[in-house]
User: What shape does this take?
Amino acid sequence: MSMQQRFDDSPMVRPSRRDGSAEPLVRFDQVTKRYGSLTVLDQLNLEVSPGEKVAIIGPSGSGKSTLLRALMTLETIDDGVIEVDGEPLTHMPTAGGHLIPANARHQRRIRGRIGMVFQSFNLFPHMNALQNVIEAPVQVLGMSKAEASQRGEELLAMVGLEDKLGHYPAQLSGGQQQRVAIARALAMRPKVMLFDEVTSALDPELCGEVLNVIRQLGEAHNLTMLMVTHQMGFAREFADRVCFFYKGRIHEQGTPEELFGNPREERTQAFLSAVNEAH
Amino acid sequence: MNFFDWQFAWDILPQLLEASLKTIGITLGGFAIAVVLGLILAVGRRSRLPWLSWPVTGLIEFIRSTPLLIQAYFLFYVFPNYGLNLSALQAGIIAIAIHYACYTAEVYRAGLDAVPRGQWEAVTALNMKPLTAYRDVILPQALRPILPALGNYLVAMLKDTPVLSAITVVEIMQQAKNIGSESFRYLEPITLVGLFFLLLSLALAWFVRRLEDRMEVAR
Amino acid sequence: MGELLPLMLQGAWVTLQITFWASLLAIACAVLGALGRLSPFAPLRWFSITYIEVFRGTSLLVQLFWLYFVLPMPPFHVELSAFSVAVLGLGLHIGAYGAEVMRGAIRSVAPGQYEASLALNMTPLTRFRRIILPQALLAAIPPGTNLLIELLKNTSLVSLITLSDLAFRARQLDQATFMTLEIFGLTLVLYFLMAQAINLAMRLVERRLGRGRIKGGLA
Assistant: This one.
């Protein structure tokens, strides 16, 4: 089998847009992810523009977390292409313009544009707050310790933790830990931030402080954000666009006013009324 | 000179196998004592009477942190001064048995601790005598989950028997050394002894693992 | 008694030196063995499994004798000093057990730590060195302490390959003075004290490594 034949079935590099509209920062093109016989992402298409805030809602098991995890390369995808800032993340182009699965180096280069905050914080327990924030800038970006520390202190001050620099995760509340985790992700200067149910592990009274930080982040920076959330109120107030996930696809999407105020699809209506009843 | 003299290895095999019977005998005899003595020590350590539990705890900790070799020396060389003459084999079996009893005691303790508190309350409520309670209710529950751990100590004990060669017990290792010093060939006898321990401990470990799997199923 | 102690302490000093160097080798073997065992590269995995099984499965004394008696002979012609044999044999032996401890410790690190490291774009090497290893080492300290005490106790076997450690001094003095009870009693106490010192030292290491990881007060 010749090289040419081998790549005939592989996806092609997409020609850049000529109509002048903004390139999407994140693009899912026919992305499929399966676990055995279960399809969690089903030929998913999604485009996110620079600076856009997208909230992803939907019943559990609908694939919304998998979407973020695939974008962070925590999951491999079975089919399709994910692009970040006009370059494929999961694939890399050959000289002939065909796409082949990305190697580790290519993935690392593209992955550097993405930051992620997890439901369970995942702070490094053996490092204090400041060490958590400067670890990756020093080790991965090669920043000097002094520079990283200065920036780390600024970031921790921004999330309201300037007096907790030397505290270890075990000495912080859940809300404080999650704010350190946000600062840690921001320290890598990502273009896209992913928030994966970041308040789900928190006591209700601690959600507010984390959501406030995210809100403030959205106002102060032109950061692109994708968030999977159960906080409908926050999604409604904060997001530019809300996507309702159902069975591995975007079942319905629109502005918060459209989706929450006037959902067209039956599934969406059922989900929203179930959520409303629960509260 | 060839690398490994197969003929020589074949010739010394009967001598080694004969000595291996002693190794296996020491292991089985020592283990039989250790499982019983260990249980007694465990119950003693858990006793609510401080004059019993403290010395037992001290003894277990002391024996566990000192070498089997010195304990064997102690039994073999000190006791005769006080009229207790033990043969090397007797001293060896007793030394290894006491040493491992202190390990099995900790295994029993973990097993006994794992029996739910309600079971103790139930035997008290039924007004059972302590011995009956232990024999009929507590031990059967405590024993099953710790069988694999006990099995692991059987394997460990087997591999510790060569230590007894230091008090003139001619077990398989000593036999190999004797052959070596007579023939000036150490490669074959010592390698064969290594192989003997490897095969036997792998086989025993396999049994222990099967035992563990059966426990999982039984639960 | 007064004349005994200095000579015994000389022996104890040799014992401590062997324990120290062998434990460094054992820790290195444990980390590398565990990494090899967890490696996705099959030949490396098989190499590690072979190392672990051989050094756990053949008795320690057999390993020491093999290194001491067989290696200098043809076809190897590798003559090591008794001290090197002691450090090498004990280090490799305890390292094989340590590898299984480390493997468990590495696997006990939460999956979220791997995910966070990946999300921060760390290379596998940085992730292991900076994130996984520090946490695994802390988890490995309690079982590792037991292994170090096993190592200390096992150093007594080097007296059988002519090293004048504490066990060797005890035998030597016993033959010279016949103060059997005093000598072996004192020897046991010295080993016990050294074991307690290891316990204490490891607890300090655990406190240092675990700084800030326990809820409550500041480090």
Notes: Chain A touches chain C through 30 residues (CB under 8 Å). Residues 124-189 of chain A form one domain.
